[in-house]
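Late entry, evening session. Most of the bench is empty. Finally got around to the prediction I had been postponing all week. Sequence below, unchanged from the version circulated by S.P.
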Amino acid sequence: MSGSRAALPAAELARTVVFAAFIGVLGIFPGVYVGGSAVPIVLQNMGPLLTGGILGARRGVAAVVLFLALTAIGLPLLSGGRGGIGAFIGPSGGFILGWILSALVVGLIVARVRPKLPMLLVATLAGILVDYAIGIPWLGVYTGDLGAAAVSSLVFVPGDIAKAVVAALVAAVVHRALPGTLLGTREESQAP
């Protein structure tokens, strides 16, 4: 029995590291600047949605924090090969830091409901909203105009909705294939 308990923290750590790496892999795809925006459209912000949706709040946040810590020390893991503290101070810094809350919110919602597509979609859309709730004010402070920051962020909405849908679809497939991936879900708590 003690051997299975010892394996659990190792498995949790492995999942956390794998998902941190997955977020980094999404950074291979370069960002696209649209309409003179100071913030690029990237595929990478789908990573925290998937991470929270598959791993849950605690491990999802841990994976995002690990990824951000590696980025902060200078590894070029952000889209376009960016890394270092400067990425957190610039115009997209609030959106990047918002990934922590995004993974948390998605993970909290998914852990409390059956991880089926409709609720996963609600969770991932909520994750996008909380990222905007941090990123837009940050951009507003950076540019000196909160209204302009909010309006310029509208260009991201269609793509972010599409990313939320894709993240929900992928998470639904993972939960169907591997029931109980999230610790504390109904499937695991009912297991013998």
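Two things to note before I forget:
Residues 24 and 122 are 25 Å apart (CA to CA).
Residues 117-143 form the longest helix (27 residues).
Will write this up properly tomorrow.
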